[in-house]
């Protein structure tokens, strides 16, 4: 577990900072809140780290989901059951979380399905009802006010969380930091134009730290790095962006 700011902790995936399974964040303060839950099988680790900070599982009042992918909601059903926490997510991703729409996942040829079965099963997530739908511009009461930003592209209902008091952004998979700043997996990104616009939305915020679903938090020269990355993306995808604007 890594302390990112005095009130925000990152619980990393199995092979470090979310290389295998997404990072999970614990927001402390008056109201204990989890952000994302990792693949299924992370419940023991998450609750152990919660206890290490001096809390009990029932102190977790809310679980905010940045987007519906299985590496972020795999442990949600079990965690909701254990903690009785209220689940928050954007309405555009809620149908994938509550099972009305299927989770996208990797496909494999018939002959590989049996050996890969344990891996493929990770993408099947037990349906969970979203208790509170959160929209762009909503302000949540934790840590002095968390601003919800609707940042679609990776999924239709991806959100970023801006914590002005911590000067921190939790970017989910809108950005990744696998050794360097990058786009999320293209195979699992539904709309690249929206995705690039969403990265610009993050770049326009006033922050010192960015946390990612995958990779280590950026804590040095952060804003400059994100602004520069957004600029390079706009250059690279200039034609695609321009075509979208004229249609
Ligand atoms: Zn992810
Ligand atoms: Zn994702």
Description:
By secondary structure, this protein is of the alpha/beta class. It has a single domain (2-246), classed as Metallo-beta-lactamase, Chain A (4-Layer Sandwich), CATH 3.60.15. Helix content is 29%, strand content 21%. It has helices spanning 43-52, 70-73, 76-83, 94-97, 110-113, 117-121, 192-203, 222-236, 238-246, and strands spanning 2-5, 8-11, 24-27, 32-35, 60-64, 86-89, 132-133, 139-140, 146-150, 159-163, 168-170, 176-178, 180-182, 209-211. A seven-stranded mixed beta sheet has the order 1-2-3-4-5-6-7, covered by helices on one side. The chain has a five-stranded mixed beta sheet with strand order 8-9-10-11-14. A two-stranded antiparallel sheet has the order 12-13. α7 (192-203) runs antiparallel to α8. It is globular.
